[in-house]
Amino acid sequence: MIQAFRNFLTRRTFNYKARNKAMNAFSSFKNFQTIRKKAENERQEENRAHEVLYFHKVDDPYSHLTIHYIDKFKESYDIDFKPILVGEENPAALHEPTLYTDYCLEDVKRIAPFYNIEFPGNAYPNKNLVDTANSILCAVSAEKFGEIAKVVSHALWQEDNATLEELNTLYDVSEEKVVAKLKEGNEIRNNCDYYFGSAFYYEKELYWGVDRLNHLEERLTELGANKTSDNEPVCLIETKAPESLSADNKVNLTYYPSLNSPYTFISAKRVREFENDYPINLITKPVLPMLMRMMTIPTFKGKYIISDAAREGRKYGYEMKEVFSPIGKPARKAYSLFPLIDSLGKGFDYIDELLKASFQDGINIGEESYLESTVTKLDLDWQTVKKELNSSKWKQVLNDNVKDMYEGNCWGVPSFKITDADGSNPYYVWGQDRMWLIKEEINRRLG
To answer: How far apart are CA 134 and CA 389, in angstroms?
Structure first.
């Protein structure tokens, strides 16, 4: 029973009803509200403070960003702040670890300037420096953690051994204590159903890095925990790109969607807005879901992905409603029609319709009657398109799309690629969290 539940998201799971039921439970706004209300009632009954856990990994590039907001966060909210040092990520949640580490480093180098944060790293620090950094922070009190951790992080990524050694004379614990502390931190993180660093945890809910701090701030503000009345966010990003842009030239924006990805679903509305507001040639290159690419997603990660995507969808006015996962035969049937539909100029529109059916309308997109109505809705001839149903041409197309996506150290979806109109100068971005960065890059090229 337990193993079956753990595998509900994987390609090995044939009980689609159980999988859909679990996905709907994780994405439900009603359940979301119920969990929050219950957590707050319990907190008040137990007369507990607003306790916020923060998981810090010294050699995680994203932790370098979040640590810069800790002190301001503590000053802005009446909270009991508990920093927790963690070590390696949970391996069960890591896919393509080499691509992951390379991408994280490049991503933080790109976005740090928009937060007015200096990120001095060009490579990951060596183990000796990491060990020293952990030794220092294991000895630092929660009150001074933000202040000291910023200095440690800068020194670590600059490979400034002298500064770390100097701090280590003031803050030092034994190697055994460091090992025990990191093990304890990992256990706490794992018990919170999380797997990376640079994340916050408050009353049954997780908030990853600078990208999700806004959700935590809104929740604390709703609970009356803010110390000031101006409600100014702790974490602000300074962008330059306008809402819309006109230019004589265009860039190519390649979009890599997957039919089983909740993050892809919540990105689709904004991709369409890109097409309306920015001078782009939109190229749609769908890929197989990770679960159909022989990857396994543990339940705790699946739960976080779905609930977080639902939370982000509500933020952007594109709510997940009734979910019907298309993993397996439904996805294969739907993908089989894509190459022809794309050649007829309706590739993105087709994927958009499939995503809405799967994540809002709870429709099995593998049903032939649904596919016929969708093709007809796109003003295409069903009898012509139907000839490709269950054909195998799509397999090579999607395989080539994955290879293209991997060229940019991207393995998950949605991913994006910007090129000049002639296909040169590629710039890859992973995730709906970086759609603002796509605008910045297009504005840099054409603005």
So the answer is: 56
Cβ-Cβ contacts under 8 Å for 24 (sequence gap 6 or more): 322, 323, 362
DSSP 124: P
| Residue in the block written with tokens 């230019």 | 247
Kindly write down the DSSP assignment for every residue of 182-237, as one continuous string: HHHHHHHHHHTT--SSSEEEETTEEEEHHHHHHHHHHHHHHTT-BS-SS---SS--
The Cα–Cα gap between 351 and 397 comes to 15
Question: Under a CB-based contact definition with an 8 Å cutoff, are residues 13 and 305 in contact?
Answer: no
Backbone φ and ψ of 408, nearest 5°: -100, 20
Amino acid at the residue 300: F
Q: Is 226 left (phi over 0), alpha (psi -120 to 50) or beta?
A: beta
Domains of the chain: 49-222 (3.40.30.10), 251-446 (3.40.30.10)
351 and 371 Cβ atoms separated by less than 8 Å = no
Mapping DSSP to helix (H, G, I), strand (E, B) and coil, where does residue 421 land? coil
Q: What is the C-alpha separation between 269 and 312, in angstroms, rounded?
A: 12
H-run or E-run covering 36: helix 29-45
Q: What number is the average pLDDT over the span 300-318?
A: 96
Query: The whole model's pTM is what?
Result: 0.94
Strands in 205-208's sheet, in edge-to-edge order, are 80-85, 51-56, 199-202, 205-208
Collapsed DSSP state (helix, strand, coil) of residue 83: strand
Does the structure show a pLDDT above 50 at 181? Answer: yes
Element (H, E) at 262: helix 262-277
Given a cut of 60, whether residue 377 has pLDDT beyond it is yes
The C-alpha angle with vertex 51 and arms to 47 and 52, in degrees rounded to 5, equals: 165
Confidence of residue 43 (pLDDT cuts 50, 70, 90): very high
**Relative orientation angle of helices 262-277 and 435-446, to the nearest 10 degrees:** 30
For residue 346, give every residue at least 6 positions away whose Cβ sits within 8 Å of its Cβ, in sequence order, or none: 378, 380
In sign, the C-alpha dihedral spanning 20, 400, 433, 196 is positive
